[in-house]
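--- STAGE predict ---
source: upstream dedup step, 1 unique chain passed
mode: sequence only
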Amino acid sequence: MKLLYVTTGLDSGGAQMMLYNLLSRMDRDRFDPAVISLMGQDALGDRIKALGIPVYTIGMKPGIPTPGAVWRLIRLIHQLKPDLIQGWMYHGNLAAQLASSIFTSRRFPVVWSIHYSIDALASDKKMTVALVKFGAYISKSPKQVLFVSQVSKSQHEALGYARENSHVIPNGFDTSRFLPSSVDDRTVLRSELGLPEDCLLIGLAGRYHPMKDHANFVQAAALLLETNPQVRFLMMGQAVTQDNPTLSNLLQELGIHDRVLLLGERQDMPRLLASLDVFTSASAYGEAFPMVVGEAMACEVPCVVTDVGDSSWMVGNTGRVVPPRSPQVLAEAWNELIALGKESRNCLGKAARSRIITEFSLNSIVAQYESLYEQILNQN
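--- STAGE serialize ---
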């Protein structure tokens, strides 16, 4: 069964990592996948190729696709002749549907995958808003519209997306890669980063973007440090570095630049996450089912998350959920976990990993995708 994934890009974001995870566990005796990235290969292209899966690029620039890029996509799909096309993210969904509709002699069944939640369209770029609205208009066309989040599904349906062909398959997590850290590993990492061996470490991971609301995290850090000066903070992600003037200036203004480490984009995320005492998602909007929260939970790290997308469902009773854009409440939630003490935090962490294994294991999520593909092709 030849599957073709058409994705917006292959950078190291959560949606793209879920695509990689899906491909890494897929039954290759039953499925023969290939990937088209509308933009470039970025961070994950080589990793997908290393799985023995071909990766093709269209070379589109951000924004409205040019006729030349559309033609390259159509010609490539014509050459590959897939049995089913899976769009991945808004641009990938639209491209997959467009390509299928052009081949009138043979309509490829198309599945969409949406990895975004919408709290208010006013928060989004004009192009995103246009894609969301046009997606609603043609949402009956694909065989299935998959959402990684229950909240996202409800939000999109309220905007006019078809209900009869929508379905939720949450993200899955590789619990063999994201593992609890030993005491020695935690000590070594703190030594490498120049941190006190016994310091309590709170972390955030995510590219620098308004939806991630790094300012919320930093402002909460300043508030917490007023009563807990021993705490240190790690921030990781693309453009989360000292060279980011907005972020660096804010840390200087708050007087906490020496308590917050900006590590930028890292390749050793399992090790970094496992060495934290508390992980935080401080996002203001846009999150659907954030990969990094599940990865931290798999490392037995209790999480404090803003109530965006399905973050609350993910965490359950293993951490804390706070409103977005509320530094004071975020700081209070951190303080609650600190007051619990190490032993109780460890219990929450163990419950978090158990929840990921039980509810969101990668193998069970991959099986849901595979079952859906076979069902669609049998019906087709």
